[in-house]
């Protein structure tokens, strides 16, 4: 059984290798944290904007990786870059409507999923990110806790309260 310390040591080892110029190590970090970054972004911006911003977040992380003094803090540092990217994007660009299911392209959620995402984005931020990471990115509660640095009990509470609010909002829409 892995302890929470062992994954942190493995993460720090990968970060140090990436800081030394090992592109494969950075690629592994991208694979491990891609869903997390995508989920954080998706909690704030549209699906297609999240896809584009995800690349920007990892490019910024790669460019600034040498400035990261504590490799074990990588996940929190990466989350901060993702949140800042979403905030900057929202500030600079006017909000756009989420394209509907008629848009042809890569795999995107169906129309009903877009509607649910819109409701999730109106929830308090503390619930929004954990719900997107769980419902959209498919991360488990313990995985969310490990990646975000939140306590497992906090993740459980955020998911429980967030799901309750989401159900209330969705039921309210159905009555209209």
The CATH homologous superfamily of the largest domain? RNA polymerase sigma factor, region 2, helix turn helix motif
Architecture (CATH level 2) name of the largest domain: Orthogonal Bundle
Radius of gyration based on Cα positions: 17 Å
State the helical fraction. over 70%
Q: Looking at the structure, what is the overall shape? A: globular
Largest sheet: none
- Give the amount of beta strand, in percent: under 5%
Number of domains: 2
At the first level of CATH, the class of the largest domain is Mainly Alpha
CATH fold descriptor of the largest domain: Rna Polymerase Sigma Factor, Chain: A
The number of distinct helices, counting runs of at least 4 residues, comes to 8
Structural features, described:
- With 176 residues, the chain is mainly α.
- It folds into 2 domains: 97 residues, RNA polymerase sigma factor, region 2, helix turn helix motif (Rna Polymerase Sigma Factor, Chain: A, Orthogonal Bundle); 69 residues, Arc Repressor Mutant, subunit A (Orthogonal Bundle), CATH 1.10.10.10.
- It is built from 8 helices and no strands.
- α2 packs across α4, α2 crosses α6 and α3 crosses α4.
- The N and C termini lie far apart (50 Å).
How is this structure best summarized?
Helix content is 72%, strand content 0%.
Could you name the key traits of this structure?
Rna Polymerase Sigma Factor, Chain: A; Arc Repressor Mutant, subunit A
